[in-house]
């Protein structure tokens, strides 16, 4: 009998955040969430919707607008037997508590000679595309990349949100988990109950022979759109979703460049000190002989994020910019 | 334990700290301690008195002036001095140094060198105790200078709103680094006067009297364990040295220094012992034992092997390593 299939096996990136957290909270009573408006309000992006109803006020804690207290308390709790999941509403606000990300959380294990462990996750909504202007739209994953001692996750799909959330929460190391604002409404398959994606494993999301595109979070979709367009003119692009900046899976990148001999990074963070610079530096160091063309980085321009859509498009990576960069290295 | 025995024990702990700090000072001059030190001579009664009011499983967070806090929670003078001397046997394997002494085995969860940063951590440890259903409390020691930084206010507010078992102990030594605290603070008592704004009780106490400190902290601990929330204690004390190794503290008026040196916490405790009828000879025995303890610690730290260079690449991650890429 033919019938309509109800797509219960599809989930949005937004709902995947709450689903990923909920799965871990069900299996581990020490997982507790804190942040601004994450409780009954369900989060300003609704990424914690349903958690307060399921787990209640003893595990889902609304905080004041006190970013230092949020991550500082999360750190103290993590050192003493809890696995906190702290939300910093917009990644731009990480600057308000940067001392904890730069000086405290990543260093305490090391500077105490391994006496303490800090198993926490700091989740934050990152990136542009929603027209929020210069203080609510930045892609700041490269800020975290400057700090030894932080693991850095930035998923591109709902399934990866869930699988990487599982690994992040189970990790005994501090993890900064960048959720991309521009992807919240996107949909994908709901992964099975035991879905776990190991930290530091890049994914080859499209195979190709002529050029390697290395992307992260939102730019995975930009790179895939560019690959579609390039395919129409006979250029075969391989797209790698890096998934994590730390650990950074350069083995997968080098293997791909070994096949394609060309590399383009697609980054939403600013070009200056963006993560692609680290990728490129390793590839030219360890894979110089693999390359048949200069490498290119498509990253955001070195200006603050403007408000207007037309202006923002000038600054952030777009399909057209990626296509142009790929053509330049393929035609080299 | 009788009152006398207990006070003798507190006296000995303070005597050991005083001698350890003097050793740190001397070893620096001898070129055996590098970097910097922020000595706590003069502050002993705050660390020892407060620690005496805690259970072994309670949490303590301290500052870069924290040798006395590590020692008061059970770290040995040998491990502390070895850390300062960059030895493999140092408390933090010579990866922390003077400003980061940590003794997790005694739930002394770190000395932090960014002013005020550890106050929210103490709040988090207290929150954790609540979540896990224990009766542990968390205590943060901090200086008067920390009362003007945002983290102090964020920590007090959150602790009060969540009614957490935290004791905020300010060591008010009258100077934020080189500047009189009163010159830069719109409050007479920089910690205690701010507490009422957060609906939190506060007590100003003579920080050079170990008995009074212990009593004040014990009252706060009782409140915390009973679920009645956080307390601020402002313990007035004085540094015997400058802010850090390079500071001769010439900005402090001579009569002020003299007045405080006459109110030395060890002398105050000794006077209390004598008032309890303890013979001077009995106190001398304790003094001599403290001297021997620290002398042995100095010798052992000097004899210890230097830091293992391989340790530069351990302890970044929980797996013990430092691997950043795959």
From TrEMBL, chain A:
Residues 11-186 form the Transketolase-like pyrimidine-binding domain. GO terms for molecular function: magnesium ion binding; oxidoreductase activity. Pfam families: Transket_pyr, Transketolase_C. SUPFAM superfamilies: Thiamin diphosphate-binding fold (THDP-binding), TK C-terminal domain-like. Its cofactor is thiamine diphosphate. Keywords: Oxidoreductase, Pyruvate, Thiamine pyrophosphate. It comes from the Bacteria. PANTHER family: PYRUVATE DEHYDROGENASE E1 COMPONENT BETA SUBUNIT, PYRUVATE DEHYDROGENASE E1 COMPONENT SUBUNIT BETA. This is Pyruvate dehydrogenase E1 component beta subunit. It comes from Asanoa ishikariensis.
Automatic annotation (TrEMBL), chain B:
GO terms for biological process: pyruvate decarboxylation to acetyl-CoA. InterPro entries: DH_E1 (IPR001017), PDH_E1_Alpha_Subunit (IPR050642), THDP-binding (IPR029061). It comes from the Bacteria. Its cofactor is thiamine diphosphate. PANTHER family: PYRUVATE DEHYDROGENASE E1 COMPONENT SUBUNIT ALPHA, PYRUVATE DEHYDROGENASE E1 COMPONENT, ALPHA SUBUNIT BACTERIAL AND ORGANELLAR. Residues 12-308 form the Dehydrogenase E1 component domain. Keywords: Oxidoreductase, Pyruvate, Thiamine pyrophosphate. This is Pyruvate dehydrogenase E1 component alpha subunit. One of its GO terms (molecular function) is magnesium ion binding. It holds the Pfam family E1_dh.
């Amino acid at each position: 009998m033919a019938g309509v299939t109800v797509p219960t096996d599809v989930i949005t990136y937004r709902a995947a955040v709450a689903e990923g957290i909920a799965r871990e909270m069900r299996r581990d009573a020490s997982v507790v969430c804190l942040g601004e408006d994450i409780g009954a309000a369900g989060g300003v992006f609704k990424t914690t919707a349903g958690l307060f109803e399921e787990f209640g006020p003893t595990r889902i804690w609304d905080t004041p607008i006190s970013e230092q207290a949020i991550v500082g308390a999360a750190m103290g709790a993590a050192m003493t037997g809890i696995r906190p999941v702290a939300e910093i509403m917009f990644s731009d606000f990480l600057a308000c508590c940067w001392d904890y990300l730069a000086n405290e959380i990543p260093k305490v294990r090391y500077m105490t000679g391994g006496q303490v462990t800090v198993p926490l996750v700091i989740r934050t909504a990152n990136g542009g595309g929603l027209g929020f202007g210069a203080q609510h739209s930045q892609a700041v994953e490269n800020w975290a990349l400057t700090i030894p001692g932080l693991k850095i996750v930035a998923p591109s799909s709902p399934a990866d949100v869930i699988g990487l959330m599982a690994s992040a929460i189970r990790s005994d190391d501090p993890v900064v988990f960048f959720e991309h604002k521009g992807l919240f409404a996107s949909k994908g398959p709901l992964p099975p109950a035991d879905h776990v994606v190991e930290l530091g494993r890049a994914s080859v999301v499209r195979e190709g022979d002529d050029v390697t595109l290395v992307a992260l979070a939102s730019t995975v979709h930009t790179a895939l759109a560019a690959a579609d367009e390039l395919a129409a003119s006979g250029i075969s692009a391989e797209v790698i979703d890096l998934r994590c900046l730390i650990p950074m899976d350069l083995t997968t990148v080098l293997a791909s460049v070994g096949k394609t001999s060309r590399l383009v990074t697609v980054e939403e963070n600013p070009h200056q000190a963006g993560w692609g610079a680290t990728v490129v530096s390793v590839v030219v160091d360890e894979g110089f002989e693999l390359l048949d063309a200069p490498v290119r980085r498509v990253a955001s321009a070195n200006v603050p994020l403007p408000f207007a859509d037309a202006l923002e498009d000038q600054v952030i990576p777009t399909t057209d910019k990626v296509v142009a960069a790929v053509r330049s290295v393929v035609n080299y | 334990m009788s009152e006398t025995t207990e006070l003798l024990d507190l006296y000995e702990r303070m005597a050991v700290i005083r001698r350890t700090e003097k050793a740190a000072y001397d070893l620096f001059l001898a070129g055996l301690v590098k970097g910097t030190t922020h000595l706590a001579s003069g502050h002993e009664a705050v660390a020892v008195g407060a620690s005496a009011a805690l259970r072994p499983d309670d949490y303590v967070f301290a500052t870069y002036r924290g040798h006395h806090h590590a020692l008061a929670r059970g770290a040995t003078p040998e491990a502390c001095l070895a850390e300062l001397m960059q030895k493999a046997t140092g408390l933090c394997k010579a990866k922390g140094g003077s400003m980061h002494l940590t003794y997790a085995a005694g739930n002394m969860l770190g000395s932090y060198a960014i002013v005020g940063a550890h106050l929210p951590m103490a709040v988090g440890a207290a929150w954790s105790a609540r979540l896990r259903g224990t009766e542990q409390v968390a205590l943060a020691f901090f200086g008067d200078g920390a009362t003007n930084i945002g983290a102090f206010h964020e920590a007090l507010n959150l602790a009060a709103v969540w009614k957490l078992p935290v004791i905020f102990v300010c060591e008010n030594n009258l100077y934020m680094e080189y500047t009189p605290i009163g010159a830069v603070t719109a409050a007479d008592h920089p910690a205690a006067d701010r507490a009422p704004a957060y609906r939190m009780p506060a007590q100003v106490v003579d920080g050079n009297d170990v008995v009074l400190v212990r009593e004040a902290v014990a009252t706060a601990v009782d409140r915390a364990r009973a679920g009645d929330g956080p307390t601020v204690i402002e313990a007035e004390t004085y540094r015997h040295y400058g802010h850090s190794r390079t500071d001769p503290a010439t900005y402090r008026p001579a009569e002020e220094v003299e007045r405080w040196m006459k109110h030395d916490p060890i002398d105050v405790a000794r006077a209390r012992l004598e008032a309890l009828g303890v013979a001077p000879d009995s106190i001398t025995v304790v003094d001599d034992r403290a001297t021997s303890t620290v002398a042995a610690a100095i010798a052992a730290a000097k004899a210890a092997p230097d830091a293992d260079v391989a340790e530069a690449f351990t302890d970044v991650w929980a797996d013990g390593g430092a691997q950043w890429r795959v």
